[in-house]
Write a structure and sequence with these properties.
It contains 1 helix and no strands. It is mostly helical and 99 residues long.
Length: 99
Amino acid sequence: MTEKIDTQGMSGPVDPNYKGKGKAQPHKPMEIHPLRLFTPEYVKEMKILINEVLDEREYRRKIRMSYDNVKEPGVSYFDTGHFKHRINEPEPPYQDWSQ
């Protein structure tokens, strides 16, 4: 009888004459998580950028068409100078002006 080392528990019994039953296990189909090119943080920033561009476009259109009481777009999320802070302080909140 030859013995072998089974390091992963994948081998069958050591006895070559063993005729045990093999059980089939029911398995669910594999679950696939789609891969995305961009990270969730990048997607969030891109949505902010797109909304800021659309808000600025709407603001310029209203100025051009002489609307009354046109609300100016707020500080851009990408204006990092406005959001600077000390290392021991939280980052100032971003006011989403589109809401």
